[in-house]
Amino acid sequence: MFKENNKHRQESLFGFRKMLSKAKFKKLTNSKAGYFYRLIFCNIDEKIFKPLYSDQKSRPNAPINTMVSALILKREKGITYRQLIEDIKFNIKTRYALGLQDLTGEPFSETTLFNFQRRVNDYFVKTGIDLIEQVFDDLTQQQLEQLDIKADIQRTDSFLISSNIRDYSRIELLVEVVKRFYRILSDVDKKAYVDLFTDYKDKSSGKFIYDLSSADVPGELKKLGQVYYQIINNFADEYGHTNIFKTVQRVFSEHFTEISDKVEVIPAQQLSSGILQSPDDPEATYRNKRGQNVKGYSGNVTETANPDNDLDLITDVGVEKNNVDDTKILNKRLDRIQEKTPDIKELHTDGGYRSEENTEKLESEDIEHITSAIRGPNAKVRMEIYREDGNYEVHCPRQKCLKVKKARKRYKAIFNNDECKNCPFLDDCPTHFRKRIKNRVYYFGEKDYENSKKYRKFQNLPDKKKRIRPPIENTVKEFRRNENWKGKIWLRGKFKASLYALTNAISINFRRIVKYIRSVVQNSSISTKLLRIYQSFNAVIIHFVMLFQNYLNIKKQDPQNFKYQNI
Question: Domain limits of the chain?
Answer without folding.
Answer: 7-129, 170-270, 384-459
